[in-house]
Every structure is written in structure tokens, then in C-alpha cells.
């Protein structure tokens, strides 16, 4: 399967399926009010490996290709595996009507997408007018698709600017966008991107910097997409840093390291991380922004195995 690099795709960018009868039982989740399904039929867990897990996995339909270039068809295939939600990168260039129909037909939630990409950078004030215009369009698209979150990339290093100056420019731009997000009832997200392996030259890579930006904006409509893959490359101590930042986290993404594949293929103990996040009170989505190592079915089975905690 061929996957598209996220930087390339974003560089110029300004649920469940109807469930067949199962021999199952529902019970209260010990971590909160959510219920989850206990599958009694082994065959169902093989055919739909994401069905019935307590962790809410959203399939990234850019990196999970399912053997098709049709993103709406990828939504349907994700639903067939039991995913409850999907996420993707830029919305421009996609058939939004087809995505909305696929999500409605399968009862999957479109959780989030990228509303502002790498270039032009949010970290340069000369781009803020264009940023606000694009965020207005992105929030309208989020409302159309039922998405609650829109991701904003901070941008690559700007010549002649210090990191502190670039981060302040990100803060200023996000503050200007808050009224747009409030009106649409959408949350804008910032995200750390590692500069060691995947995104050399990006201006935002650590959890302390993310926290400073989110707190400086000071709005419930601007929060953090906490990506464990990037933070493992950058800083480690994943559970410790999550505890420090949990109040600003609205969405989590993940992949194992090295390789950016599914849990069980690298060095990160994701069952421990799922448990730690739950103990901190996180009940939200986990975006599987990863490249399946041995195909989608095997990756889904490994997600299921990691959900034991």
C-alpha cells in the first residue's frame, strides 16, 4: 500500500457501522459513564477487531489506505473493522458530500481534520489575515461534517525570528481566531511535531511549549492535540508529561516508535499509556495516525491487543 507523506500533503494546504447482531453484553466502564461491548463471539472480534474496545479509536484515513484512493470508501472500510470515528488531513480537494454520506451511512463520527497546514506559517503575522479567512472556511466545513476539532499547524521556522517570537505569533493568530471558533462551536488544536525524524525545521515540538501557547491563548476553543509518537521522539517520559498537560488536551493521536506503525511494533508500552490517560480522566478520541506495518487487518488486531489495560 502506498501512503502519502503528511508534510507533502499539507505543505500548500491553506462510529460505528450498522452493527450485525452480536452475542454481547454491555456494562458500565470503570473509568466513567461510557459503556463498552464485551464480545462473546470470537469470530466477530476477528472480523471487526476494533469493535467493543474501551478506547475510542479514530482511524486516520490518510495513512490507513485500505487499498483505495477513495476516502469515502476508506470510511466504509474503517467502519467494517469496527472503528467509531475517522480523521483526515486537509479537507480541501476532497469530496465532502461523499465523506458526509459515508459517515452518515456507517454511523461513524468524523472527529477532526487539518484546517491550516505547514505553509504559509501561522508563526508569521503577515499570514494571519489568510489564516483567519481559512479558519472561517474550515469551521464551516467542520459544522458541515459534524467534526468538533480543527487542527492548526504552527509552521516551519521563519528566517530571522527566534522561537519565542514565532510562538508569540502563533498565540496572536490563535487569539484572533477564537471568535470564529466560538461562533462555530469548534475547537482549534495545536500539535507538537518532532524535528528529529519527520519534520525538521518545524517551530513547535515540545509539550512545555505547547502548554505555554495554549495557556496564553486562554480559551476553551483552543486546545492541544497530544501526539504520543512525536513526543516520544522529542522528549519521552510520556505518562509524566501527559499528567502535566492533561488539562489542555482535547484530542490524542498516537503511533509506535520507531517506524510510526501500530502499537506492538516498537518501543512504546501503549497499554500503560491508555491506562494512564484514563486514570487522568481522559475519555476522548485516540487518532490512529499511523501506517499499518503489515496491512490494515493486522494493524487493527494489534490495536485490539494493546487495549488490554
Give an overview in words.
The chain is an alpha/beta fold. Helix content is 39%, strand content 17%. The protein has 11 helices and 10 strands. The strands form 2 sheets. An 8-stranded parallel barrel has the order 3-4-5-6-7-8-9-10, surrounded by 6 helices. The chain is globular and about 55 Å long. The two termini are 31 Å apart.
Major sheet size, sense and barrel closure: 8 strands, parallel, barrel
Query: What proportion of the residues is helical, as a percent range?
Result: 25-40%
On the 0-100 scale, what is the average pLDDT?
89
User: Which blocks of ≥5 consecutive residues have pLDDT under 50?
Assistant: 12-43
Strand percentage: 15-25%
Shape: globular
Radius of gyration based on Cα positions? 19 Å
Strand order across the largest sheet: 3-4-5-6-7-8-9-10
Structural class: alpha/beta
Total strands: 10
Query: What is the helix/strand order?
Result: HEEHEHEHEHEHEHEHHEHEH
Distance between the termini: 31 Å
Helical element count?
A: 11
Amino acid at each position: 500500500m502506498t501512503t502519502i507523506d503528511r508534510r507533502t500533503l499539507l505543505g500548500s494546504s491553506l462510529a460505528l457501522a450498522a452493527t450485525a447482531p452480536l452475542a454481547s453484553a454491555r456494562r458500565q466502564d470503570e473509568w466513567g459513564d461510557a459503556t463498552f461491548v464485551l464480545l462473546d463471539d470470537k469470530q466477530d472480534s476477528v472480523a471487526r477487531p476494533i469493535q467493543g474496545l474501551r478506547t475510542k479509536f479514530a482511524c486516520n484515513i490518510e495513512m490507513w489506505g485500505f487499498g483505495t484512493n477513495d476516502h469515502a470508501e476508506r470510511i466504509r472500510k474503517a467502519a467494517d473493522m469496527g472503528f467509531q470515528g475517522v480523521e483526515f488531513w486537509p479537507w480541501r480537494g476532497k469530496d465532502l458530500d461523499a465523506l458526509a454520506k459515508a459517515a452518515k451511512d456507517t454511523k461513524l463520527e468524523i472527529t477532526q481534520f487539518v484546517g491550516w497546514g505547514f505553509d504559509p506559517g501561522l508563526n508569521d503575522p503577515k499570514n494571519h489575515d489568510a489564516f483567519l479567512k481559512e479558519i472561517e472556511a474550515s469551521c464551516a466545513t467542520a459544522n458541515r461534517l459534524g467534526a468538533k476539532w480543527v487542527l492548526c499547524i504552527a509552521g516551519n521556522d521563519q528566517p530571522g525570528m527566534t522561537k519565542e517570537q514565532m510562538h508569540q505569533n502563533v498565540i496572536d493568530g490563535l487569539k484572533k481566531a477564537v471568535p470564529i471558533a466560538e461562533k462555530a462551536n469548534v475547537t482549534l488544536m495545536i500539535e507538537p511535531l518532532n524535528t528529529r525524524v519527520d519534520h525538521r525545521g518545524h517551530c513547535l515540538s515540545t509539550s512545555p511549549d505547547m502548554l505555554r501557547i495554549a495557556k496564553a491563548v486562554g480559551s476553551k476553543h483552543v486546545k492541544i492535540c497530544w501526539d504520543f509518537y512525536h513526543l516520544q521522539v522529542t522528549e519521552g517520559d510520556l505518562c509524566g508529561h501527559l499528567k502535566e498537560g492533561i488539562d489542555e488536551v482535547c484530542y490524542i493521536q498516537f503511533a509506535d516508535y520507531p517506524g510510526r506503525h501500530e502499537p506492538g511494533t516498537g518501543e512504546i508500552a501503549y497499554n500503560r499509556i491508555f491506562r494512564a490517560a484514563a486514570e487522568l480522566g481522559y475519555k476522548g478520541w485516540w487518532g490512529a495516525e499511523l501506517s499499518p506495518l503489515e496491512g490494515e487487518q493486522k494493524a487493527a488486531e494489534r490495536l485490539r491487543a494493546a487495549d488490554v489495560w
